[in-house]
Amino acid sequence: MEITGSIPSGGVCTPCLDERQNSVVTTGKTKTRIHCADDSLAGAVSQRACVYSGARVVLNPITDAAHLVHGPVGCASYTWDIRGSLSSGSGMYRNSFSTDLHERDIIFGGEKRLAACIDEIVRRYHPPAVFVYATCVVGIIGDDIIRVCREASERHGIDVIPVESSGFISGNKIIGYRAAAHALIRLITPKEGEVIPKTRRVNLLGEYNLGGEKWLIERYLREIGVEMNVACTGDSTVAALKQIPGGYLNLVQCTGSMHYVAKLLEEQYGTPSVDVNFFGAYNTAESLRAIARLYDEPGMTERAERLIERETTRIEPEIRYYRQKLEGKRAAIYVGGAFKALAIIRQLRELGVDIVFCGTQTGKQEDYEQIHGMLKPGSVIVDDANPAEIERFLVEKRVDIMAGGVKERVLAHKLGVGFVDHNHDRKECLAGYDGAVTFAREVFFTCCSPVWDSLRRQPDWEVADGT
Amino acid sequence: MVPDPHPLHEVNENQCQVCMPLGGVMALKGIADSMVLVHGSQGCSTYMRLSMVEHFNEPVDIASSSLNEKQTIYGGEENFRKGLDNIIRVYRPKVIGVVTTCLTETMGEDTGRMIGTYLADRSLHGIDIIPISTPSYSGTQSEGFWTAVRDLIVYYTTTVSPHEGVNIIVAQISPADTREIKRIARLMGVMITLVPDISMTLDRPYGILYEKIPPGGTRREDIAGMGGAKATIQFGYCCPDPLSPGKYLEEEYGVPLYNIPLPTGLMNMDRFIRALVSITKKPVPQSIMLERGWLCDAMADAHKCLAEIRPAVYGDPELVYAVSSLCVENGAIPALVATGTTSSRFSREILSLTQDGERQPEILEQADFSGIGATAAQKGVNLAIGHSGGKVLTERHGIPLVRAGYPVHDRLGGQRILTLGYTGTLSLLDTISNTYLEEKYRTYRQLRRTEFYDRGGVIHAET
Ligand code: SF4
Ligand code: SF4
User: How many CB pairs (< 8 A) connect A and B?
Assistant: First the structure.
């Protein structure tokens, strides 16, 4: 090993694993369709998580519910307070409850322990609902969590909702989103004879209030004359979620997790839905216009246009400054869902940055086609990328900046590549006009940091052999 | 929130530990040219990676056999083999550690047998595949770590002729700590085999060629020779005998064992130096004596500040014991000592630290942060020392936190936290004092005002 002080330009790049070749395409070259529905390949160090994690991510922001992970303690400890969702009220959701199964429970079953844990939580904290998440082991030992939850629910007169999220069903988070969707529907289904009156308010599905994003969007909506019923699930409460059926319209933001819920809501309560996207100035404007069109109320479109005009003008000088600095830089994107990838592609392009490499953990065929259409020829698209592939393309494609999650960050830094966080535990608001500025600023900070030049500077002295 | 008269006992609320395979991974990452396969479903290994990446700020590759529902029912062997194939192709490791998860342990997967068949079928040369059993429902990362270190040593050691080297088996410490141990050994002129050596593998300097398996780590040849060493020094003071790698070397190869606490604190570091002296019969160099002198000088300067501190110490038993001992010798008697695991030695050793004093700490085993928080508040704890989980103590009880141990995910530089040796002890001691002073200077004006001015200056006035 030799410390040269030069750019660590990557080792010899190993070719892709054969089984993964259909998961990688180059725009304008490869004809084959990308394979994205495959399970993660064993031994390939997938960045994917599990069904439980998918479900937990969706439900965790429900602020006043208790979230109880039924399984060995680790599954809970890794997911304790890992999201940046903010709350205007209760902080209950930031606790991590675990049934902490031990060997005897694995042998004799964990149902008794689960019931006792629910009882304790209820006795101690009186939450309006308890979500009970099944982990892999529970799936194997065959605990009937549905029955335990039903009985506990009757005992305590509150909602105790089973989330059927045994992780081994699939390594794919999408299945976890499904499990969460079913749990949500269970929670919001009105009791026999109860009718939730329809209102003129909107539900915002797939908004998790990271860095206060829900609050910002709520302001925009209020300004154009639309009240928010509840966001699903950012800064929501159990009581507020139960009002979902009263929504006039469902705005669907994170497609990966919430289209399914929207579909169920349409079937059961006749609520129509529309896709929105509040990441980036362009998307925000388009979303506000679409909402105004659907409401068809006098003055709403004008109010929306006024807001768009005012905000666009306000942020324009700062964005222009960053654009000047960033024009022509080369970017890589690797994120969980395609929704996020598409939003980031658009935002980076608004800043004059070229996207040369893009991948997601859970994108679907249609998503990849859309991504394909947005990238210049010669760019690489990868489904379920592993670190070896990410390393290879960061080097090969001479990437200046990468957008992704924590695991990608350290790799990018090691290779001397700038990085912006676009993950669940971020502390900044990246939505709306303020978010667009924050995003641009982050890209600028990392891309144009003096650090990269300092690191590249070669010391001119002679280095001795040995230690 | 109204406190409950019965503390929680069934549910674990806000965990003080991570899981057993992670400890195994931690040990394996300190072996040269190694890779890890976590046999189970994808999530466990992704979570472990995430946790380690956040702490070490390094890429940490951990492969998974990615079992899905079908394999869970019919057995995971096919995926297991595919996993090994792919690791070997992409990473070209010399050592593959296979750790199990709750899932595969519950399924009853026999990784030992599966490895045997795999090796026979593939006729691979130069690759060792080592099974390590780590069901998290029967232990935490502490047990996982010792199990893995022990299994590695059992796997590699053979009868060799006696040599002058000394084995040093460390607990879960940081890369910076590991470097400190190596530096001290160098200063003492002792040849050591240090296991596991994460000094490079989990803390790569910038500027070296990026390779998929980081450079550094204990070489398997060196582990093989551990049975011929003059002695073993093991920082496994609370490690139960059946898991103790040093105990194994003693029983199997007759290598004398010095099982001592982590060298944090004057007394513990003296024990380490004394052990090195008695093994090698070498004098201690002046430079080490100077470092000791600086620590003693700092202790004299800090003692009154430290006397005001009522710390809570929590985390891995080894760290907790050593830090508690540091606190005790400086007059900051811990009010609360806690660990997420349980061990026959832990409570006994902690108690023996304070047996002569008037104040005894409250000791919690299998603790969670609901228990630690409640006890801390009740005992008037005014500073906590431990991993990032303790941020709830700050948020909910206003207790300032000195971050040490694993994981530290909400601050930078988890891999660089230095707490060992005279020098590391000194820097930890300063951090403890200064964290306390910062809080004190921030609040004392208002406190004194409330005490003596707002209450009209009447001492012990009824409110
Ligand atoms: S199943 Fe076991 S090994 Fe996997 S994360 Fe949970 S506790 Fe850890
Ligand atoms: S055991 Fe299953 S639920 Fe728990 S972390 Fe592992 S994959 Fe996820």
Answer: 240
Which of ligand 1's atoms lies nearest the C-alpha of B21?
3
Q: What distance in angstroms lies between residue A75's CA and the mean position of ligand 2's atoms?
A: 6
Give kind and range of the element (H or E) at residue A382. Answer: strand A380-383
Amino acid type, A80: W
Instruction: Record the tokens describing residue B11, joined without a space.
Output: 């549910």
CA distance A267 to B277: 78
Q: How far apart, in whole angstroms, are the C-alpha atoms of residue B313 and residue A252?
A: 46
**Contact B38 CB / ligand 2 (< 6 Å):** no
Specify the fold of A51-188: Rossmann fold (3.40.50)
As a whole number of angstroms, the distance between CA A385 and CA A360 comes to 7
User: B101: which chain A residues are within 8 Å (Cβ-Cβ)?
Assistant: 136
d(CA B155, CA A323): 58
Superfamily of domain A202-306, CATH level 4: Nitrogenase molybdenum iron protein domain (3.40.50.1980)
CA A60 – CA A94 distance, rounded (Å): 8
B197 residue type, one letter: D
What's the A224 CA to ligand 1 centre distance in angstroms?
Answer: 48
Atom of ligand 1 nearest to the CA of A167: 1
Chain A nearest CA to B201, separation (Å): 12
Look up tokens 């296979």; give the residue.
Answer: B98
Tell me whether domains A51-188 and A202-306 share a fold.
yes
Average of pLDDT values for A169-184? 80
B contact test, residue of A7, A45, A143 with most B CBs within 10 A: A45
Residues A344, A350, A354: CA angle, nearest 5 degrees: 70
CA dist A287 and A275 (Å) reads 8
What is the distance between the alpha carbons of residues A402 and B70, in angstroms, rounded to a whole number?
A: 36
Q: Do A106 and B37 touch (CB under 8 A)?
A: no
Q: pLDDT band at residue A6, thresholds of 50, 70 and 90?
A: very low
Neighbours of B365 (CB within 10 A): 14
How far is residue B127's CA from residue A25's CA, in Å, rounded to a whole number? Answer: 33
pLDDT of res. A424: 75
Burial class of residue B419 (count of CB atoms within 10 Å of its CB; 0-12, 13-18, 19+) = buried
Q: What distance in angstroms lies between residue A16's CA and the mean position of ligand 2's atoms? A: 27
Distance CA A343, CA A403 (A): 11
If you average pLDDT over residues A176-193, what whole number do you get? 91
Choose the mutation target among B11, B129, B370 for the interface with A, i.e. most A CBs under 10 Å. B11
A52 in contact with ligand 2, CB cutoff 6 A: yes
Q: Which spans in A270-382 are helix H?
A: 281-295, 300-326, 338-350, 365-374
Look up residue B104 and give its amino acid: T
CA B216 to CA B199: how far, in whole Å? 7
Q: In what order do the strands lie in the sheet with A380-383?
A: A24-26, A380-383, A354-360, A330-335, A401-404, A418-421
CB atoms A120 and B210 under 8 Å: no
Measured in degrees and rounded to the nearest 5, phi and psi for residue B189 equal 70, 35
Q: Which amino acid is at A85?
A: S
Show the domains of chain B with their CATH numbers: 20-139 (3.40.50.1980), 166-280 (3.40.50.1980), 299-447 (3.40.50.1980)
Identify the pLDDT of residue A42.
77
- Per CB-CB distance under 8 Å, the chain B contacts of A96 are 13-15
CATH code for residues A9-32+316-465 = 3.40.50.1980
CA distance B189 to A108: 55
Summarize the confidence of residues A53-81 as an average pLDDT.
94
Domain boundaries, chain A: 9-32+316-465, 51-188, 202-306
CA nearest ligand 1 atom 7, residue: A74
Parts of chain B with a pLDDT under 50: 1-8, 463
Q: Do A136 and B212 touch (CB under 8 A)?
A: no
Reported ipTM: the value is 0.93
